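Many introductory courses stop at the sequence. We go one step further.
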Amino acid sequence: KEVIPFLDQISKEAESIGAVNTIKFDSQGKTTGHNTDHLGFEKALKEQIKTLPKKALILGTGGASGAVRYALERLNCEVIFVSRTPKENQLNYPELTQDFLSNIQLIVNTTPLGTFPNTEQAPPLPYDYLNSQHLLFDLIYNPSETLFMKKGKEKGSQVMNGHKMLIFQAEKSWELWNQ
């Protein structure tokens, strides 16, 4: 987010997402900011599931959350943000009731909670309300299984980490740099 004012231009995807993770220099030295996270997330998600989710929770509201939102909206999935400090049209964790979560298929952790070395942290979800209808996608890949994922697995939820997303978005960045 902070680099955007220093760029000559940004792609329409990066503008919609509100964050840049790849900068390309053209032959005249002009810079264009791109965001490849949305492509990495979408490809990783599609590889993991057979049926696309209709409703998803995005935990966190930082730069990565915008890329996840962008990808899910392209897949016609309703997106609901959850934050410890919610703004308009966002929920707080205590608002996540069993009835509410019964209508959610995907929960994406875009927060840093659980990242090494703070591996004993997890978003404050009501994990007791999770079951096999839920997929928990943690953008974190170190550790490979976060506490968020472990708690979901204990309730029968399918889980995945962000390793494939990292690879897929990096491949797209490489492609942009070399075209």
